[in-house]
Each structure stands twice: as C-alpha cells, then as structure tokens.
Amino acid sequence: MISPVTWVSALLAGIFSAAEIPNKTFLIYEGVSYTYEEIDKRSNKVAQVFAERGTVKKGDTVALLMSNEPDFVCVWFGLSKLGCSVAFLNINIKSRSLLHCFNCCGAKLMVVGADLLDTLEDILPNLQEDSISVWAMKKKTAYPGVNTLMDKMEEASDKPVPAKLRGITCLKTPNLYIFTSGTTGLPKAAVITHLQSLKAAAGFWAYGGTSDDVIYTPLPLYHSAASLVGIGGTIEMGATCVLKKKFSASQFWNDCKKHNVTIFQYIGELCRYLCNQPKGENDKQHKVHMGVGNGLRQDVWREFHRRFGEIRMCELYGSTEGNLCFMNHIGKIGAVGRSNFFYKLLFKYVLVRYDMVRDEPVRNKQGFCEPVRRGESGLLLSKISPQSPFFGYAGSKQLTEKKILRDVFAKGDAYFNTGDLMAEDDEDFISFKDRVGDTFRWKGENVATTEVTEILGLVDFIQEANVYGVEVPGNEGKAGMAAIIVRPDFKFDGKKLFDHAVRDLPTYARPLFIRLQESMEMTGTFKQQKFQLVASGFNPSTITDPLYFLDYSQKCYGPLTTSAYESILGGQCKL
Questions:
Q1: Which InterPro entries would you find in this protein's record (predicted)?
Q2: C-beta separation of 533 from 483 below 8 A
Q3: Which of 144, 194, 393, 446 is packed most tightly, with the most Cβ within 10 A?
Q4: Mean pLDDT calculated for residue range 53-61
Q5: Which helix (H) or strand (E) element contains residue 174?
Q6: Which class is 322-435 in CATH?
Q7: 441-474 burial, b if ≥16 CB within 10 A, otherwise e?
Q8: DSSP state of 426
Q9: Candidates 3.30.499.10, 2.40.50.100, 3.40.50.10150, 3.40.50.980; correct CATH number of 43-193?
C-alpha cells in the first residue's frame, strides 16, 4: 500500500494518475487534448534537463512566471519530481515587486513563458546581477544570458528521474510558494505544504465530483484556486480539465458546450460578467451541473440561476495561507459555508468585535477580544493549533507575525487573523461581509493599499497618498481610490499620473478615482484614516474636494463630473 506521504508527492507530480489512466485526457487547451501519460512524460523531460545539468537540486526553490498553458503544469510537475519547491509568480506584477519575490522565497532560478520574456527586459540585468538564472520556454532567444528550455526538452529523455528525489518524510514540508497581496505592501510568499496541497486537491471530491466530470478552469494558475483546487482536484479524481488561457465571457458557454463541461471554477466577478452577456435562446442548453468558487454576490447568484439554470453553486471560503475553510454544500444563496458541532470541535474559530474607525479588534478592560452575537458582523479569527497550523510566509518572520493575533481570550493564545468580517446566523450559515485593514478585492485580485501607496509616492507632485477601496454599484469588490496631497509649488498632472499608474501597476491595482485633499486625517495611533473616506465614496455632488477618474479614452485622470459619475453608475463608462 502506498503511504500518504509518498502519495501526495506523486499526486502533485501527476504520476499516480498517469500510471492508472495513462490514455485518459487530462488537459484540453485551445482545442488540443493531452493525456495523463503525455503530461507525465513531458514533465519528465523538464526534470531530466535540469537534472542532467545539475542546475537545481532537491530542496531548491524555482520561480515560475507563466500564463495558463499545459507547459505551466509540465514545468511545475517536472521541478516537483526533482524535489524542488516552486514559487508561482503573478504574471501581472511589475519590476520592483518581481525582484522582491525572489528575495523573499530564495529562488535562484526562474522559468518564464515565451509570451512573457519581453516583460522582463527592464530587470534582466538586475536578475543576472543577483545570480538568478533565467530559463525561457523558447528554442532560441536574443537576450544574452537567458537559457532556452524548449530545445533542450526536445533532446531530453522522457524517462522518470529517480523517485528518491521527490521523496518526502513529512507532509508539513513546503512544496509551493503562492504569492498573495497583504497588509505589508509588497507581495508575500505564502508557504504551501504537501498537507495543504492534498487538502485543496480534495475540493471537487468533497462536493461530489467524480472521474466522469470535465472541469473548466479559466482562472490563473498562479493562484491556488486554479492550481491546487483545479489541477490538483482534477488529478485526485482522475477527471479532465479544460484549461483556458484567459477568461472570456463571450466564449465561456461555447467552450462548455464544445467540451461537455460539467463543473466550472469561478470567482464572483466571473459570474457577473456572464450574466451581463446578451441573452440567448440556448442559455440553459449545456451539461454544467456545478460551479465551485467564491465571492458570488446574492443578486448575481439569483440572476445566474435564472439565466443558465439551477446549476449547483458551491461557495467555499479560505485564503491561500489560512488555516481554516468553509464550504457551502447545499447551495444556500449568500452563504460561504455552514458550520456544525463537529466542525467547531476541530477548528476553533470565532467572530470578534471590530472597530472600523480605529481599524483594530475591540478589547475589553481585561485586554481580551469580545465575540459578537449571532447575526452580527465580526472579524473572523481561527485558533492556531496542531490540528489547524498556520505555516506563514517565506522570508521575514515579521510577515508571519503580523497575521497572528495573540492574547485573544487568554494570555498566550494565538489566532490567525483572516482580515475578513463575517456573520453567522442561527442555523450556523456563515456569510462574508467585508474585508478590513489595508487590503481590498477588485477584479478577483487582492489589492495591497500599501504597495499602491508606495508606487504613487514616486510621482514627483504627490506629497502623500492614502489608498482605499470604494463600492461601485453593479460591481464585485471595491474599486481603488486614492486621496492625495499635492506638494507645494506643484500642480496635479492627470496625464503624468495616468502614465505612471499604467506603467508600474497591474490593471486591477490602479486607482480608478483620485481625491485631492489639503490634509490627511490620522487615527490615534498615527495611521491614515480610511473609514470616513471609504464611507463618503466618490460622488462629486456630495464631496467638495476635487475628484478625478481613470479615463482610458483620454489616457489621463480627468475631472469626475456629475455626468461622468452617472455614466459610471449606469455602466456606459466601463471601469
């Protein structure tokens, strides 16, 4: 009998299913099918290339910067077969943040997709100065010092490397680093252990998925939802995954019908985009019976059912680095999950009172936190224990410590701070209410306000910036907004700010609204005050400060007039 430790290593390297069902289709990408055996052998080639050259060894960390494509999986699995930890890099991050990622996870080698190599042109000298070896998924390249992988894979053997290279003795050994935006500003490398990977891979199975299912994954593989739940879950069941390079609302249902998709992965924003597509007579003619994801708003949920049929929407809750997970098995609209007596015995979570103005949990006279009543919103905390460990982040221990809340109910206890406001009703259904602190979510991505603030601060006319999220009716999450103070003897330059934001920030992190202020409000602990700014929104009829919006048509931050504001609310002006 194969041991659990060996099995999880084999599972994530794709070996187990390749041996059991070699000829079954594993991936479908842009109309081309790849069997389990084909992906397994191609990943062997990746492993052989690096093994023969002694480029990496067991225990090393390798960074992977690739878009959704089969070779993302092949490189990931090939490196795993060598016993390497793989760091998934967000393909949207820019130069400064990208260099930071290498420092915090300790990677000295990077594999980059052919379509992304040119985006590294600015920082290739920096990477090479730091002795970081760059390997491109190409047969040849004009960039000096960049190694090519595709040509070497063609000549490499497809035989497996020795199994001892991938062998592990403890499920709590790190095998991945997945970057997540947090309150520290720059991306943080969440440590993903074999144990966490195994748990995530059971996601579809827990909802009743089987080997007969065809899973549609249009989400980016550098996030845990697509890689661990999507790819890992497909392997765990021995199913088939239709991998999409990038989500397309207009192609979604055609893809599902063409490939007989039965389960799709989503984030709430994705479902809203589908509902906004023109209605068709065949909207309900498909084989999809389940959607698995998170962030589905109640009104979108109902509209989705009306448009596309009673598809079972399986909401789940859990952050990449978190130590608990909620699952909504019965499809109750608006709930991310449901707890029970047994769950609470295993996972000690609690909702505590939170002061939105002071941006911190409420403490009583004894210095301890106070649980909220049933139905009230509170900050979700999860107790750290051997049953619910928190593995933290790579790099500075301070990054990990900032996510831990101590002395919550007793001296010496420790809880993982999710940063999310939740509510639990009388029937134990749990619903998400909002995010707190310095992070908000937009376009399916977490935006770290500190990172955006630092980048805006590089603009010569900006003296101080305070970045936060505001609600925009009809949109999921919160749109970025920045209150700024212009330096004395300088003027606000909407064109310069636009160019800076487009150049140095990913699309989802660019502030969509700017508010000019003469002074910044501070909290009692000298933090920038965000609560009142968030509450006041971006309505020019109620805000006396000058307001601007990100106008892509004019390529500048232009004045937010009443007509422009109404156009945004009406959906004529796309954000």
A1: AMP-bd_C (IPR025110), AMP-bd_C_sf (IPR045851), AMP-binding_CS (IPR020845), AMP-dep_synth/lig_dom (IPR000873), ANL_N_sf (IPR042099)
A2: yes
A3: 393
A4: 91
A5: strand 174-180
A6: mainly beta
A7: bbbbbbbbbbbbbebbeebeebebbbbbbbbbee
A8: T
A9: 3.40.50.980
Q: Give the architecture (CATH level 2) of 439-570.
A: 2-Layer Sandwich (3.30)
* Cα dihedral 552, 553, 554, 555 in deg (nearest 10): 30
Q: Distance (Å, rounded) from C-alpha 540 to C-alpha 520?
A: 19
CA distance linking residue 300 with residue 452, whole number of Å: 29
- Backbone phi and psi for residue 118, each to the nearest 5 degrees, phi listed first: -65, -25
pTM equals: 0.84
- For 73, counting Cβ atoms within 10 Å of its Cβ (0-12 exposed, 13-18 middle, 19+ buried), the class is buried
pLDDT of residue 9: 54
Exposed, middle or buried: residue 367 (CB in 10 Å: 0-12, 13-18, 19+)? exposed
Each residue's pLDDT tens digit, 317-342:
988 888 999 999 888 999 999 998 88
Q: Which two tokens stand for residue 431?
A: 């619903």
Sheet containing 556-559: order of strands? 462-470, 479-486, 513-516, 547-551, 556-559
Output the CA–CA distances (angstroms, integers) from residue 100 to 122, 169, 276, 442, in the order listed: 15, 31, 38, 23
Pairing relation of β-strands 429-435 and 337-338?
antiparallel
Mean pLDDT of the chain: 89
Question: What is the domain partition of the chain in residue ranges?
Answer: 43-193, 322-435, 439-570
DSSP helix/strand/coil, 231: helix
| pLDDT for 184 beyond 60 | no
Residue type, 436: V
